Fold:
Amino acid sequence: MIGFVNPLVSSGCADGMRRSMICNAKKPRSKRGFSTNGKDEELERIASEWRRKQKREEEKKNMKKRKEEQIASQQAKRAADKKNRNSTTMTSGDRGIATTSRKNPYVEPAKSSGRTTFKPEEVAGVRFGGSFTMDIPRTRVPEIAFIGRSNVGKSSTINCLTGLKKKVAKTSKQPGRTQQINFFILSDAEQQDLATLVDLPGYGFAKIGMEDQRNIEIFLEQYLSDREELKLVVILVDSRREPQATDIALVNNLRQFPCKIQIVMTKIDLMTPSNLSKNAQAFSEAVGLTDADEDLIFFSAVTGQGRGLLWQAAQEAIANS
Structure:
């Protein structure tokens, strides 16, 4: 009967020391491992495998350590940034000093270009000016405000209009959550402020209480009525939708304020020419567009179509104010 054959016996090895070294090589007790004279192939193979295993384990430990250090560094940086933001102060309206937050880091422009018009190509920088409801500081430069239904593309329109790679206006995962007035200040190569793009709260999707809705209406009405720097209000309408009652009501409501308005139909890159023409005609009739100053502008933040016309409308509003 042929039974189990010990590999040590079959190899002709009767050396007790070699047998012990080979058996212990699989689990060496010392971190330094063991060495061979290079003459014993079996022992050399086991030793080589052990060294490779030790090397892999060491690499895993180093990788885990680097990851932990990276996470700790990021957490420390976030904590430091939060501490700096909370310690920052600002001058706001007649209430004097007010504490800022991540959403309210506004600092009044140090210098303004003082020009009534400029070329879009002159825009070299954009920075977040802050989020406000009351006691909005003066920006000293013309303001172009954007308003429209939630998910209509306000942030994309603002980012496209700047013409810069930096996307300063952030798109929320929950449309309609913006409940403050956000300011984005444009500057030239000499860091002189040219104009401010203003993101007004959206409507249509946000699930907020009646009291919050009323508060938004109050500070919006105050901003639209009394803001000296406001030169143009751009009403954004989704070109994919048939005329919405909320959009029609918004146009009619804004006509009661002294500010000039411009209606822009967005996301036209998602529309066929025939459907776009149909929806545009229906919306024009619904709001009674008869004035040439209220002609529609067709806009796409993806292709950039309509960007030049929108800038032209803004510059005309600034120059004629």
